[in-house]
Amino acid sequence: MLGAAAAARPSVRRGRQLRRAGALLGRTCPGRCPLLPAWLREVVRRLLVAARGRRELWCLPAGCAVGLLGGSVLPPLMAGAAVPLVRRRLAARRRQRERGRREDAVIELCGAVAGDLRAGRQPGEAMAAARCDALGPSWPAVTAAARFGGDVPAALREAGRQPGAGGLTGVAACWQVAVDGGAGLAAGLDRVGAALAAERDQREDLNAQLAGTRSTAVMLALLPLLALLMGSALGADPLRVLLHTPAGLGCLALGGFLEYAGLVWTGRIVRAAGGRAE
Hints:
With 278 residues, the protein is mainly α. The chain contains eleven helices and no strands. Residues 28-33 have low confidence and may be disordered.
């Protein structure tokens, strides 16, 4: 196997060079001795393009592979049913990452504007020069209001409605107090940034303490797969028993229900410990 891989490496490298040259010259440069037919390569390419950025679709080929090994259509059907669940889980993780980026952007905004104010800049100029790309399309309205003399607190409150950008309401309050009462805006922004940073550090510390619980739950959830692999290694053929016998189908349904119930229960325990009512 190592010798075959070493022998195939030059041809693969040459194929990459030919494709790169074809992209530069605007023509197609087929590689030598393709391993797959042209129509099959096109199908694979289209599938990869369709699955790019949609990781939940990888459940389908995994279910089809298990169905081929077990000789049953049940695993592909289960994989199709798992696609929306995986999509929802991935979307929740993506929203959580975006929320964290917005929180970091608000903290950086407070520090940057406070530093510019201490350097001698006017509040509108300092706010217009700040960049918060993580806040999305609502941030240009804030910079436009600061640059052209608009209602900056209202624009900040509107941008603060996004998940993770709630600290902008504190920035708006500091701005309004500083403009109306003449208080120091830099000191207020420092306090808002320090409070947001302390809350973020506390949440990260709590997540670090809960990491062991999450990893334990994941390990327990993967134990049935390990049992199936061990049974296959011992020659027991557990897929045939689970997918082609009434007792196996009953055990599969009961085990799947208990697995889902355990994951939901553990998730609620972790969320309750984290103080999030999601």
